[in-house]
Amino acid sequence: MSEKNLESMEIVDVDMGKRSFRVRRTAYTSPEIFELEKKRIFDKVWLYIGHGSELKKNGDFRTRRLAGRDLIFVRDKNGEVAVFYNSCTHRGARIYREPSGNARNIVCPYHGWVFNTEGKLLSLKNETGFGEKLNDDGHLDLIRVARLEQYRNFYFINFNPKAISLHDYLAGARDVIDAICDQAETEQIILPGEQSYTVRANYKYLAENSYDGYHVTATHASYLDFLRDSAKGTPAEAKFDEVMRNYATQGQVRSLGNGHAVLESFVPSGRAVAQWTPAMGAKFKEPIEAKKRSLVERFGPERADYIAETQKNLVIFPNLVINDIMAITVRYIEPESQNFLRVNSWALGPAEENEELRAARLDGYVSFLGPAGFGSPDDIEMLELCQQGLEHTAGEWNEMSKGAFTDGDARTLVGGPQDEVQLRAYWTQWDRIMRGLDTLEE
Ligand code: FES
Q: Can you list the pairs that 411-415 forms with residues at least 24 positions away whose Cβ atoms lie under 8 Å?
């Protein structure tokens, strides 16, 4: 299949008469489309590489794999964050093989060339025979990725030097990130530990799943049963039933521009910031309610309610998920092939949180969001069932019409919490970039 054929193929199909928005299934299964996505999307958009709190000291580094490239995310000797290709400029060897560490210099294991943390080549081991001016122009220094920018300590890279700023790219997602960061009185930090797992499905299926309010009561019925059982016989029981009765209508999904979107909902799962439920244990009631009072003082009641009570499932196009639900997870989805993805996932929490609240947060994190929690295994099974279904049936289209055209436009920007506004925002942007209608360049 040539690029031209791909361009002329209708991937997103909108039919106003039928109020239908659908996506051709080859977009999840075709190796040719996957190759084109790498070139047209992953080489052009901002991709999350890591959080500044992961690099506490000068010389701290993390190795990351993004869009098929091995990269070094490092805090240099001056305290600046830098990102280099994890490949020696001598003969190309991968330099760091470990996931993280701290080093004064970056030393290639093959012939021993030494670079400083700013990427400058310091020494060619046994320099005899090399010209004195060999690196006068710096071409043997470590290669930096074209762009590196951060918003509220979330660092992103872009392989396109002409890309619009990260600030502009994030568009309406900045306000949601603000609400998540403002939970902390000091700063939000990545908590120790990283979870990495793979799924036999296209990466877009996990992006879609991460803010899909429509699947919650079906896929996660056992988790909801657990929450209800925990509330049984307490004053929270009636509240739980009321919230779940209204789940389909309370909250919303919102498009945030540039393909980003958020699901804002009210599952009464309890949140270390700042919503207490009996399942969390009586000892957490007062400290969590105190946190809510502090948010009201800092931001006023309306914003405090949004920060504390509203669960936010945010997807930054195309593959960063920040779920601020019973805990906060930051998930980077690495597409390995058209039907295989890898997830790196971290918990985020306020730096000032005491040990007990931190434990409650991490309990919420592993009980639902972790790969062995109530949520993730159920989701993973659904994604793999979708991928398997696509690969052996004759059906050509995935349907994403729920709540479409409520304002006369397929891309309706706001919908109910179970509508599919966010999926249409994602796919509309995907289609525009793949067809070259949005270059995301200055
Ligand atoms: Fe790195 Fe030779 S490949 S020093």
A: 411/255, 413/254, 413/255, 414/252, 414/253, 414/254, 414/255, 415/252, 415/253
Residues linked to residue 271 through DSSP beta bridges, in sequence order: 275
* Ramachandran region, residue 277 (left: φ > 0; alpha: ψ -120 to 50; beta: rest): beta
Judge contact between 397 and 388, C-beta under 8 A.
no
107 CA → ligand 1 middle, Å: 9
> pLDDT per residue over 251-297, tens digit each?
899 999 999 999 999 877 777 777 887 777 788 888 888 889 999 99
Domain 172-434's class?
alpha beta
Q: Considering only CA atoms, give the Rg of the chain.
A: 23
Nearest to 240 by CA among 217, 268, 216: 268
Q: Residue 161 in contact with residue 301, Cβ under 8 Å?
A: no
Alpha-carbon distance of 142 to 388, in angstroms, equals 42
Q: What value does the mean pLDDT take over residues 397-406?
A: 89
Residue to substitute in 87, 94, 110 for testing ligand 1 pocket (most ligand atoms within 8 angstroms of CB): 110
Query: Taking CB atoms and a 6 Å cutoff, what residues make up the pocket around ligand 1?
Result: 88, 90-91, 93, 108, 110-113
pLDDT digits (tens, 9 = 90+) for 188-199: 999 999 999 999
pLDDT (0 to 100) of residue 416? 85
- Right CATH number for 47-162 from 2.102.10.10, 1.20.1250.20, 3.30.70.141, 3.60.15.10? 2.102.10.10
Task: Take residue 281 and report the two structure tokens written for it.
Answer: 């244990």
The crossing angle, in degrees rounded to 10, of helices 285-299 and 355-364 is 90
Query: Which residue's entry shows tokens 């969001």?
Result: 369
